[in-house]
Amino acid sequence: MHAGRLRLLECSAAGLAAQVFTARDAIAKDSIEDLRVAYILLDSAIETLMVRRVSARLIHGDLDPEPRSWFYRERDRIAIDLHDPSQRSRMEGSDERDDFDVTEFVYWRLSKTQLSDIERDFTSKLQFLAWLGDLDEDLVSVVSRLHEYRNEMYHREKTRPEALRALVHLYAWLTAEFMERLRPAWMGYGSDADEVRRGIYRRIGIQEPPERPTGFFDEDLQGMMASELRRSLDLEDAAEVFAAYVTSRVTSFHDALEFVGDYLATIDRSVERISEMDVVRRIFSKEFMGNLKDLRRERVSLTRSMISRWDGWSLEITSQVDALRAFAALAEFEREFEPFETEVQESAAEVDREIQLQIDIARGK
Length: 365
Description:
Blueprint: H1 3-29, H2 32-58, H3 70-73, E1 78-79, H4 87-92, E2 108-109, H5 112-120, H6 122-132, H7 137-156, H8 164-181, H9 194-204, H10 221-230, H11 238-267, H12 276-284, H13 292-295, H14 304-311, H15 313-318, H16 323-362
Parallel strand pairs: 1-2
């Protein structure tokens, strides 16, 4: 193999080490600012690993919608369904068949849209790698959600400080998992790469082996980096942290409803006592022009049973067997809760502005 290509692989490992272990050092500082930097670096490392594996898988063009090789153009090829991660194993061979040792060879193809999405979109890369069998299906939704957190941090400066430490440690654990699952097909060294190799070990903070490996497979840099990264992680209380975070958000949700209810009590006397569901119906029945008493006959998208389920969701999180499943339960909660949370927060903000306006008017401003 050409020495330049081998050195490129070493430089790729060096770049990955720079991201991962700069993140590790930031995690050790344990401030909100450093944890935010670490999170963004870990997200970048995971995408780097995925880009490298995806590029290696697509390099021959056999999955292209219009393959370059006549060999693939003349085959009947089956469309890949990225939302069906079991499609490949199901069609290429099933243990349920009598002759399960015999595997059918299937020629696959991606559409132009799929190919474009895989090249540009984070979640599409996850789906493609899960379809290939390189990643577990369960990781797709979890890592995709963690990437959304990164976008919120980077573009909106939303950091979730109550849960950030546990989130960063979980993302670091997943980065180590990706380093082990998405290893390069080969690794070697060019004649001019000694300093690059030494730099990798210095950055990791461990002693460089006295002997340089002689073969392509004699040194597992990525596996070693994964092991070293895991040494600095603590996920023991992650489930409790995520549960407390959910409890805090649900409590704030109830507080916002109470705040709006106190205001409604000053302007609507149609009912003797305003309940939380009266407030919910007023917020989510914006087209209804009647009073609260009449509104009680209306049905809205947010129900009492949904709120009750959110009240108990923290127990669902703490019942999970590990941090990954605990976060999956948190992500499921957020998918259901956040649209309603946003509406309630916006209503509370509107009420606050109205109260402030009335105060300013009373003061003659």
